[in-house]
Write a structure and sequence with these properties.
By secondary structure, this protein is an alpha/beta fold. The chain has a 7-stranded mixed β-sheet, sandwiched between helices. Helix 5 runs parallel beside helix 6.
């Protein structure tokens, strides 16, 4: 089984266009996604799409952001989406990058829930925004890598907001797995290929709805 430090790209000309990388906290998912994106880009440029809010008052969070930034090559172009909440629009915008990395969808979801004041709203309040994101991933024409947290494998969150986040990110991950060509799970620094279908045509619109959601 490959480690998170080895992208383990299949040696064939028809590489996956859209890859979803899932994993828990500190699992190595971001490091794996970064190496995978660089391998997909080759000598070309990489566009790094950062989805989180910056908070100078939160020193621990700023340290985590700095760790990610320091790992990235200087040649990568960084785009931040939290202030405009425009991730789907960014994925639809023209780019000369050979590959795009989005890190991560957990912070994207938090920003969207904050922006819609939806933490106390019924589940599904941000479904239109999720629909737009899934469609932009489905229709993405180039090499795209998405990082997302895999949550809900253990203790049920005590708070309503925790349960809401768990349910919304679980549903989003399932929908994105349907439209991505490759899905990778990173656990304890090791990768497991859950899906690898690069030759498959883009899914239809009805496939953007996850099946069997719990």
């Amino acid at each position: 089984m490959p480690t998170a430090d080895s992208p383990d790209l299949p040696d064939r000309p028809n590489q996956p266009r859209r890859t979803l990388v899932l994993g828990g906290a500190r699992s190595g998912k971001s490091a794996h996604a970064e190496e995978l994106t660089q391998a997909l880009a080759g000598a070309g440029r990489v566009r790094y799409v950062a989805t989180s809010h910056r908070d100078p008052g939160d020193h621990d969070w700023e340290h985590r952001v700095a760790e990610h930034r320091d790992r990235r090559p200087d040649s990568w172009v960084t785009v931040e989406t939290a202030h405009r909440r425009d991730l789907a629009d960014q994925l639809r915008s023209p780019t000369d990058a050979a590959a795009t990395l989005v890190d991560d969808l957990g912070t994207w979801l938090t920003v969207e829930l904050d922006g819609a004041a939806a933490w106390d709203s019924p589940r599904g309040t941000i479904t239109p925004v999720a629909d737009d994101l899934v469609a932009s991933v489905r229709d993405y024409p180039g090499a795209l890598v998405l990082v997302t947290p895999e949550v809900g494998l253990g203790v049920i969150p005590e708070t309503r907001s925790g349960r809401l986040f768990r349910d919304e990110i679980g549903a989003l991950n399932a929908r994105l797995a349907q439209v991505c060509d490759r899905v990778v799970l990173v656990v304890a620094g090791l990768t497991m290929i859950l899906k690898d279908d690069p030759a498959r045509a883009s899914c239809g619109a009805d496939s953007t709805r996850a099946r069997g959601q719990a």
